[in-house]
Write a structure and sequence with these properties.
alpha+beta, Nitrilase/N-carbamoyl-D-aminoacid amidohydrolase, 2 domains, binds 2-acetamido-2-deoxy-beta-D-glucopyranose, Biotinidase/VNN, signal, hydrolase activity
Length: 508
């Protein structure tokens, strides 16, 4: 009996230690939390610790939490990574030196031997001027900050959000420092926060300059049709940058925040959710260290019940109607639209829809700057979007997922525009073009159902566009991206290439 007990205990211990991934493994296990927003900090802390414990039980090596779902608008605390934490890096072992939230998360990471990333409001008190940090003014700063703990509860990284989405009470990072940490399972991560995804620094620089293939994303995203709903852009970022993308989203459906997932390069979503009802949910998945090299089966997108979608607020890009567009008709059509430096050839074959609410479709092209909370972003795009009437203003509005739609039998979009340029001081490209799609269920189509590649620019287009798109040395640098459906689709809301081009900002 005693022996048996010994055996059981021993095999449990063995299992626990086997569960940790090692540098030799081809996979690791990641966890994210779709977390319903609450202002009750004590309750959040209890929930966080439960999720950390549960993720560890399920064998996760690392867990990431969303943006600003631990602290509330009146709670903040110091993370003195250049001060006290150098000497006493494990808050769990020195509770008297640190805020109780920092101590509690450190302890949970340590108790469960798991890496933890949390996002918090960080206080930096520069009135004392003994922080060891850059203190441009003698005042108190509040940052929107990711803090990373290792398996011993040690604080190993701190990243301050560079690109604030309004957030009047926060100061953007004083220097554009990237988030970066290494792990004992042979994976190096970068991480950034929400609106940061839209900018060259850090979203492109993190991958290209640091040469990492694993990115953690803490977010409280405000979904926008037709290009920027949460899971749609998360999955496309992973695909386009060819990285594993571990995205943890705050859930607050009344303002349009929902959507989390774990994505692996060209393989798409290993697991993803876009809930239309208030939700807190832990998602755990094996992740191949080489993005896209999946083996075995994965849950993929977890769909909501159709009726639940109506409660998620989804706004429509207000600038959409300002652009060049053309309605699609039933049957086969091929045409080219041009706006400023972007030209797109559309080849479409569409069958008439069935049902009462036959949707209209429009091809839309855009080359402009779009302003999001005072920040101008250069956007180029070519897409088709579903509309409820023949009026442009009815396009890309929120659809009921059961509404009838048309069958798109063939669809190819060839976008010709300026080629991304490598910026050698930032060590990254200045433009990224994302293949985006959205179906009525609020997820993108699977990565098996489309292809995207660079093609040869049409000579006529090249001569038309090249005058405007000369680079500094006068060289014409034009590229054509071919984005194509591989299988007919009957529940598309949008399909197109959407790109950010930093050049545009300087030009307008
Ligand atoms: C934030 O949490 C603290 C601590 O629980 C509480 O005292 C405070 O009232 C909360 N603030 C808001 C705005 O809810
Ligand atoms: C903080 O102290 C450093 C020298 O230690 C000084 O250069 C800097 O101006 C001080 N900043 C403030 C805000 O007092
Ligand atoms: C992680 O970074 C370390 C230090 O730069 C490097 O030696 C190692 O090769 C990197 N690991 C991977 C998988 O890139
Ligand atoms: C970047 O990382 C990959 C593996 O992830 C490695 O093969 C390559 O040599 C690295 N390149 C540089 C410049 O470090
Ligand atoms: C590279 O980026 C820096 C920082 O944004 C910018 O000042 C510089 O003009 C860029 N260089 C080129 C060649 O675009
Ligand atoms: C791919 O397209 C087919 C229809 O041609 C559809 O049945 C399937 O669900 C699609 N897969 C995904 C993941 O979108």
């Amino acid at each position: 009996m005693v022996q048996l007990l010994y055996l059981v205990v021993f095999s449990c211990l063995l299992k626990a230690s086997l569960q940790k991934s090692t540098p030799q493994d081809s996979e690791y296990v990641a966890a994210v939390v779709e977390y319903q927003v609450s202002r009750n900090v004590e309750e959040n802390l209890r929930n966080y610790i439960e999720h950390i414990t549960e993720a560890a039980k399920q064998g996760a090596d690392i867990i990431a939490f969303p943006e600003l779902t631990l602290t509330n608008s009146t709670t903040s605390f110091p993370v003195p990574i250049k001060g006290l934490l150098r000497e006493y890096p494990i808050p769990a072992l020195h509770p008297e030196l640190y805020d109780n939230l920092l101590v509690a998360i450190s302890k949970a990471a340590r108790d469960n031997q798991i890496y933890v990333l949390v996002n918090i409001r960080e206080l930096m008190d520069c009135t004392h001027n003994d922080t060891g940090e850059l203190c441009p003014e003698a005042k108190k700063y509040t940052f929107n900050t990711n803090v990373v703990f290792d398996r011993t509860g040690k604080v190993i990284d701190r990243y301050r959000k560079i690109n604030l989405f309004g957030e009047a009470s926060h100061t953007p990072a004083l220097q554009p420092d990237l988030g970066y940490f290494e792990t004992d399972f042979g994976v190096n991560f970068s991480h950034f926060i929400c609106f940061d995804l839209m900018f060259q620094v850090p979203a492109v620089q993190s991958v290209q300059k640091l040469n990492v293939t694993n990115i953690i994303f803490s977010t409280m995203w405000f979904s926008e049709l037709p290009y920027l709903t949460a899971v749609q852009i998360q999955e496309s970022y992973a695909y386009t940058m060819n990285v594993n993308f571990i995205a943890s989203g705050a859930n607050n459906i009344a303002v349009g925040s929902a959507g989390s997932g774990i994505y692996s390069g060209k393989a798409g979503a290993l697991i993803s959710i876009m809930p239309g009802v208030p939700t807190t949910r832990l998602l755990v998945s094996r992740v191949p260290k080489v993005p896209g090299q999946v083996t075995g089966s994965y849950p993929g997108p977890i769909y909501d019940k159709p009726d639940n979608h109506d409660r998620l607020r989804l706004i429509t890009d207000p600038s959409l109607v300002a652009h060049v567009s053309r309605p699609l008709t039933s049957g086969y059509q091929q045409f080219t639209l041009t706006e400023k430096d972007v030209s797109c050839k559309f080849t479409v074959k569409m069958s008439p829809g069935i049902g009462e609410s036959f949707p209209y479709f429009r091809a839309v092209i855009q080359d402009s700057t779009t302003t999001y909370t005072l920040r101008e972003i250069g956007v180029v795009s070519c897409s088709i979007v579903a509309c409820t009437t023949d009026q442009f203003k009815s396009c890309a509005s929120n659809y009921h997922p059961l509404a009838a739609t048309a069958l798109i039998e063939e669809l190819t979009i060839e976008m010709t525009t300026s080629h991304p340029q490598f910026n050698s001081s930032l060590q990254c490209d200045n433009a990224v073009y994302f293949p985006l799609s959205l179906t009525k269920r609020k997820f993108p189509i699977g990565t098996d159902n489309f292809s995207i590649h660079h093609g040869e620019p049409d000579e006529l287009l090249r001569s038309q566009l090249s005058t405007d798109s000369e680079t500094g040395d006068g060289k014409k640098d034009i590229t054509t991206i071919v984005y194509k459906l591989k299988k007919p689709q009957e529940d598309l809301l949008s399909f197109g290439i959407w790109g950010k081009n930093v050049f545009k900002r300087c030009r307008s």
